[in-house]
Amino acid sequence: MMSAAVAAPNLARFASAESQEGVLRVSGRTPLTYGGDINDLQIAWRLTGVADGPVVAALGGISAHRVVFSENGLQGWWDRLVGPGRALDSSRFRVLGIDYPGGSGLSTGPQPGDPFPSLSTYDQAHALAHVLDHLDIRSLHAIVGASYGGMVALAFGERFGTRVARLLTIGAADVTHPLATAWRSVQRHIVRRALARGDGAEGLELARALAMASYRSAEEFAGRFRQPPARDANGVFRFPVEDYLFARGADYATRYRPEAFLALSESIDLHAIDATRVRAPTTVVAFRQDQLVPVTDLRALAARLPAGRLVELDSICGHDSFLKDAAQLAPVFASTLENDP
Amino acid sequence: MMSAAVAAPNLARFASAESQEGVLRVSGRTPLTYGGDINDLQIAWRLTGVADGPVVAALGGISAHRVVFSENGLQGWWDRLVGPGRALDSSRFRVLGIDYPGGSGLSTGPQPGDPFPSLSTYDQAHALAHVLDHLDIRSLHAIVGASYGGMVALAFGERFGTRVARLLTIGAADVTHPLATAWRSVQRHIVRRALARGDGAEGLELARALAMASYRSAEEFAGRFRQPPARDANGVFRFPVEDYLFARGADYATRYRPEAFLALSESIDLHAIDATRVRAPTTVVAFRQDQLVPVTDLRALAARLPAGRLVELDSICGHDSFLKDAAQLAPVFASTLENDP
Questions:
Q1: What's the whole-number mean pLDDT along residues A262-275?
Q2: How crowded is the C-beta side of B205, counted as CA atoms within 13 Å?
Q3: Contact flag B210-A210 (C-beta cutoff 8 Å)
Q4: Do the Cβ atoms of A241 and B178 come within 8 Å?
């Protein structure tokens, strides 16, 4: 199998002295875990931060992408935790990001009307390994992964034990919880049926509105949305929380592809790795208010890991705490990234 | 305002020696809490159990109806708790049930294509009071209400303090929680948009599938649905929990009207009563695993009630425990129904 970097149409090859981007093409057929394959798989990557620092891959939820923190006019998705002087300090570490295959970025993803093969988190781990090969990175200092990115980190740890020295996962278990699968399977039905009607964006708006109701905690919603409803122009009552969910849903639908949402949402629910085979020291961060990944599942994961360490935190931001709660996460990042395993 | 009993088309006036049914018509305009009115409001009721027993109204969720327990070939909705020898013993008490106005039963409800005015739980309480007037019941021995029925019980307790001696509410607060409103507002968007496309039943199937994910607890889903997914005939992965949700959703869509679902779902979210004005002794039952009605809200309700008693229970059935957990509820029914307030 041959690899070659190709420049994507709208992509500056070197965005600054310290940033590199590219789209790696894996020539030929890349077989997938659940059958099928992808021809000439493309994987968009971005490497930034201090030039000679230890390399840390930072992977987020299914809406995350290769721009981990904002710089050079690009909008990052993890600015509270990653960047110069932040918990993952780009002035000390080199930060690697990717666009997930199957997603809405520049990596190979579903095309409208074209069903995409089912993707495993193992497939994402292999994509990351291809990027490491291409960049001549023998071993990562760490993978810091949250939500879907934490699942990919665990899959990578199982499959490529010699290529990462430590893992830090947040809000990610070894197996998906059936209640979370319940919420997501409804979201996928909404999107699939909307696509079948030719109105995928409307389906994605609804599905994202529903997803937003699972990302925070009951406590946070109670604090923000206790005001009474008001009638809209048609005389229909609108609840404050409803306005919030649908504003976020509508915005999301302008930025993401429904088919890509389907592919990565399914990939979350297919996730099931063998934690006993993850050799790298792994810090498992659990937020007790996470509705999607119950703390009990993360206690079980930490117990199954050969070198697991559990950190339990409280935050009203629930599953979204990995994006919000820099104050509590910073010391966990420090203790994980600085220590010699 | 005049009241008159009228026989509904398919309704036996006296189903047995001990059962009475009827449809009460409230002639003229019945004004509603949020504006608008209903002309010639009809309220279907059923009175059964021992002929001269103290009368207990039993009110359930938005899908409940006037047949509280199964008898004479009619299917009841609360068989585990109500009936001969059960926790609410129909051989000792007279049991009153109603079809909620706005719902899918024989009471006045929305007609296809005809927007129904917003309904308050106070409006349901007034409907119940009309039935009591019609049946010459000056005061109820108790209202036992769960979910939406518990909200109606509280609204009745506030408005008709002299007409009920005690309340027993299960999984019902004085104000709806914004996270539950979030789940339900997505359900209503699904149904409204489906109705606008002329496919209300499909929307109701999806909305009910989503609702099912909120009725039980994470623990219960984890115990039942951990099996891996299987591919369907089209090669698409189907998860066990997904099969469950959509089987229940499809069944529901054959039995209920989408417009009625909209009316009563909205009524839940509009619910907000003043607990400090509920004079009747009230037993508030909270299941700690209830995803829709957090135990913290029920502790606050019990504290606000002038004569509130809180009973906290654990059950993996979550919000649905009122239908399932007869073992734990029976002693609470006994202590509430037997004691002299």
A1: 98
A2: 16
A3: yes
A4: yes
